[in-house]
Amino acid sequence: MNDLDTQLRETGERWRAAQPEPHVDFTRVAVPRRSRRIVAAGVVVLAAAALVVIGLATTRSTRHTHLRITQEPTTRVTTAPSKSIISLNHEITQVQTFTAADGKLWVTGDAPNGGPAHVQQIDPASGVVIVDVTLPDNGPYALAVGDGTVWVRAQQNEESTALFKIDVATQKIVATLVGQNDGGLVVTADAVWINDNGGLQRVDPATAKVIATIPLVAAGPYTSLGVVAGPLGIWTVNSYTGQLQHIDTTHNTAGPPLQITTGKESIEWIAEVDHSFWVEEYPNRLVQLDINGRKLRTLTLGAGERTFDLKADDRYLWLGTERAHVFRVDATTGAVTTVDLTAGFSGSINLSIDATTGDVWANTLNPAPRIVLISRGVSP
After folding, report:
1. 20 to 30 A from 268, CA-CA: which of 8, 26, 48, 345?
2. Residue 243 near residue 260, CB atoms below 8 Å
3. Nearest alpha carbon to residue 47 among 35, 64, 61
4. According to the model, what pLDDT value does residue 74 have?
């Protein structure tokens, strides 16, 4: 085991020792799969587990040194009624990723007994599985939906990764793109974007072929493993160095690195809202930055909390926790609302917002894996 892996493990053990005893093993779910060649301690889609200082100089560290971290007032509210709980069938024992789109839920995860994974479309109104597609392996970790197609990234027998294109109408895998490393997945109107082979690959949605590979700045063997799309465009995220790179989609080039942390803070997830970046830093801080990387606001989300995932609509940011609630943050005022899960449920590791309906969903772990409605339609 290398030094970085050792530091990650020891730091995680110290943190876990200080926390209340959880109901489930969150390490199994929250820590993404490792890359196999270039990134020996890699992480998936903005979910950096690194708590180690990557000793890189930053031009903004002095300016950020005296930033005051604030705890915003919170208001407790309740969630949708208990009927808005979707149970999973026996083919998915643990959700790795899910997406809400066009009033439906797309879910994939671990299959029982190490069998091949399933990708399922579920009707939230009835809980009935509408579409069921079997993958060649049991390692899905990223999923996106666009224009009658579902895209899934998965690892293959610990040897490589693959991007699968699923045609919704026929319920079949119609194309497979083999890669080397885990990484992010974003679908835009004219491209599918994935991190792999030390760069960002632009994939033609029609053919599932790579039409451009954009080199990215790396720190030794560690390169960007996340990609995000939003009002500010396409950006890649290097969780080890605390850097973003903007992608020029016209010329398929990457701009200079934008330093958004000093390297001491672990970037977990990132979202684009209006003219700002919002970054979730380990373990429970949410930071707002402008387009130049200057910190505008830092929020601490609950005492002793550990937040998971970060999703945003036009007004709110949503963050899951290992406890019986999620956080909703007003992107304009910074006001934090604690939203209780349905009684008896906890561990909201994955979140998704349906852009069509405005519904906000969470994958909870306790007492068993479920998809739970957090907010119906446009939030008040």
Report:
1. 345
2. yes
3. 35
4. 56
Query: What are the beta bridge partners of residue 295?
Result: 289
State phi, psi for 5 to the nearest 5 degrees.
Answer: -60, -40
335 vs 18, higher pLDDT: 335
Identify the CA nearest to 309 among candidates 16, 96, 67, 18.
96
Q: Are 166 and 108 in contact, with CB atoms under 8 Å apart?
A: no
Q: Is 125 exposed, middle or buried (0-12, 13-18, 19+ CB in 10 A)?
A: exposed
Token pair recorded at residue 285: 């801080």
CB of 202 within 8 A of CB of 194? no
Q: What average pLDDT score do residues 154-178 get?
A: 92
Distance CA 141, CA 269 (A): 15
| Residue 230, token pair as written in the block | 């939003």
Summary count for the chain: helices (H), strands (E)? 3, 30
Instruction: Note the pLDDT tens digit of each residue in 198-230.
Output: 799 999 999 999 999 999 988 777 778 899 999
In degrees and rounded to multiples of 5, residue 237 shows phi and psi of: -125, 125
For residue 181, which of 343, 357, 350, 39 has the smallest C-alpha distance? 39
pTM of the complete model beyond 0.85: no
Tell me how far apart the terminal alpha carbons of the chain are, to the nearest angstrom: 49
Q: Is the peptide bond before 136 cis (omega within 30 degrees of 0)?
A: no
**Preceding omega of 73 cis (within 30 degrees of 0):** no
Do residues 192 and 151 lie in contact, with contact meaning Cβ atoms separated by under 8 Å?
A: yes
Mean pLDDT of 103-121: 94
Which tokens in the block code for residue 256? 């200079």
DSSP H/E element including 299 = strand 295-300
171/133 Cα distance (integer angstroms):
6
Give the pLDDT of residue 268: 78
**Where residue 76 falls among pLDDT bands split at 50, 70, 90?**
low
